[in-house]
Amino acid sequence: MDDLVLARAVHVLAIVHWIGGVSLVTLVILPAVQHLAEPSRRAALFEAIEGRFAWQARVSVALAGLSGFYMAWRLDAWALFGDPSFWWLPAMVLVWAIFTFVLFVAEPLFLHAWFRRRAERDPDGTFRLVLRGHRILLTVSAATVGGAVLGAHGVVF
C-alpha cells in the first residue's frame, strides 16, 4: 500500500469522526439538552456528555493534522496554499487550527471554567451562545469539507 493512500485514509477517517461528532453535538445533543433539562442543569448535563467525546475529538484532530501535514510535505504541495483555486487547503488548516486551539488549549486552561461561571449567571443565554458557536463551527467545517472533496476531484471555484 502506498504511504499517501494510507495517509489519505487516516485523514478522511479522522475528519469523518471529528466533524461527525461536531454534527452530533450541534444538531442532536445540544438541542436535546436545551429542551429536556432545566436551565440550571443544562451546563452540567452538556459537560458530562461532551466530556465523553472530547478525548476522541482530540485524537481525531491530531490524526487529521498529522496526516494532512504529512501529505502536504510528501506531495510538496506548499505552493498550492497560495493558489486561490485551492482555497480549501488553507481553510482546512484554519478549521484544524481553531479546533486544535479549543480542544488542546482553551478547554483545559479556561473555557470550562468560563462556561460554568457564565452558566450559573445566565443558563439560557450561555446555552444559546454555545449552540450558536457550534453552529458556526459546523457550518464552516462542512463548507470546508465539501470544498475539499470537490476541489480534490478537479472542481475549481
Description:
The protein is 86% helix and 0% strand. Helix 1 (3-36) runs antiparallel to helix 2 (39-75), helix 1 runs antiparallel to helix 4 (123-152) and helix 2 (39-75) packs antiparallel against helix 3 (88-121). The model has no long low-confidence stretch (mean pLDDT 93). The longest helix is centred in the middle third of the chain and has 37 residues, at 39-75. The chain is mainly α and 157 residues long. The protein has helices spanning 3-36, 39-75, 88-121, 123-152. The protein has one domain. It is built from 4 helices and no strands.
Helix content: over 70%
* Rg calculated over all Cα atoms: 18 Å
- Report the mean per-residue pLDDT as an integer: 93
Major pleated sheet: none
> Approximately what portion of the residues adopt beta-strand conformation?
under 5%
Query: How many separate domains make up the residues?
Result: 1
- Ends distance: 32 Å
The secondary-structure class comes to mainly alpha
SSE layout:
Elements: H1 3-36, H2 39-75, H3 88-121, H4 123-152
Give a summary of the structure in a few sentences.
The protein is 86% helix and 0% strand.
List its salient traits:
157 residues, mainly alpha
